[in-house]
Amino acid sequence: MRRTVKRRKSHDFRLQKKDKKVQKPSFIRSFSNTFLIVFTAVILGYGLIQFCGQTVYMTGPSMESELHDGDVLIVNKLSYLFGRVKRNDIVAIKRIGENNYYDLKRVIALPGDNISVVGGRLVINGKQVSEDLPYSHINSPGVLEDGVKLGDEEYFCIGDNTSNSEDSRYANFGNVQKSEIKGKIVYRLSPKEKRGKIGR
Question: Which of 127, 148, 169, 189 could link 142 by a cystine bridge, Cβ 3.0 to 4.6 Å?
Fold first, then answer.
């Protein structure tokens, strides 16, 4: 008896890749991505300038010989968020109504201090300041002729060039409120030959 062997049909399995259409980003999607990147950069830049630091320019001779007209400086706006204003700090002051302008002056007296000029010498809390300091001799005392007692959160700020500086000695400038001190001058960017850290 003859046996018939049935052969199994072989099945060819072919893997077929479906052609996926490469979708090119639409104009709107591309524009949205670009706008998001630019918007984020602007926000970060604004945050850095507003809360961390920025460059400022020295204008005029009032802070000579420490700073000079045209110096490009960095003001650290975080200095007084985590620390206190100290005597001899050079600070950036923004007065009420002055949106784009900083006064750069040196803090010479702190809240609660008594300050005056006697015989051309600056006196703070009954003691003459060291002659090594640029503001130790003052020929134009202004309000310091009668003496000044600083209140809470008030600072007395003057220019190192006391003969050519409009500062707290004069009524139109007056004592500086803590809220008006926006940061500490910490570094000189230019001129290149004078580049370096600022401060005593």
Answer: 169
